[in-house]
Amino acid sequence: MDRRTFIKTTVAGGAAVSAFGFNLAPVRAQTQALKIARTTETRSTCPYCSVSCGVIIHTLGDKAKNAIPQVVHVEGDPDHPINRGTLCPKGASLEQDILNERRLLKPQVRRPGSDRWEDISWEQAFDEIARKVKDTRDQTFVEKDEKGLTVNRCEGIGWIGGCTDTNELNYLAVKAMRGMGACYFETQARV
Ligand code: SF4
């Protein structure tokens, strides 16, 4: 039997029996099943623009201890009131954003005067951010304005949120920022 005949016999018909006597019907049915048939669905929000479309992220993996979940598909959420299942090309390509070898997985910093970014640990990033926030707050805190009115505000720090931030995160962020006297707030979902 040549290669062409073999393929025709085993695959093309789909019905029945291969040249070796196996029943190929279940095999063919399996290949036609949706690739998301056994995935875990996780609802999320497209991070790209202020429209904030809802997405469903399909992850494969049986949740066994040593299994690493793998994202296999991202699609619009048909139950989401904003986009009702639709996505623009950017949102439709989210899977390539998630599974991307150039995706940053650790903090980076570019020092003053440097032309390159360097990797740092999360601990170092937390320490440096905390130090700079405290110093900036101390240097730019205004107790009274030019008319002598007590304002107690920090004019050197602003905060910008994103459309994927949850209500809970925003609550904590505003609490923390207001506690320092910050008054400049914006969100990417409004831009
Ligand atoms: S899918 Fe497109 S329109 Fe919707 S949030 Fe993402 S980038 Fe914006």
Explain what you see.
The protein is α+β, with helices and mostly antiparallel strands. Helices cover 31% and strands 24% of the residues. The chain is built from 6 helices and 8 strands. The strands form 3 sheets. The chain has a 3-stranded antiparallel sheet. Strands 6-7-8 form a 3-stranded mixed sheet. A two-stranded antiparallel ribbon has the order 4-5.
Mean pLDDT: 87
Helix content: 25-40%
Strand content: 15-25%
Rg, alpha carbons:
27 Å
Largest sheet: 3 strands, antiparallel
Unique ligands? iron/sulfur cluster
The helix/strand series, from N terminus to C terminus, equals: HHEEEHHEEHEEHE
Q: What order do the strands of the largest sheet run in, or round the barrel if closed?
A: 1-2-3
Shape: elongated
Distance between the termini: 65 Å
Instruction: Please tally the β strands and state the result.
Output: 8
Which consecutive residue ranges, at least 5 long each, have pLDDT under 50? none
The number of domains is 3
> Which class do the helix and strand fractions yield?
alpha+beta
Number of helices, counting only DSSP H or I runs of 4 residues or more: 6
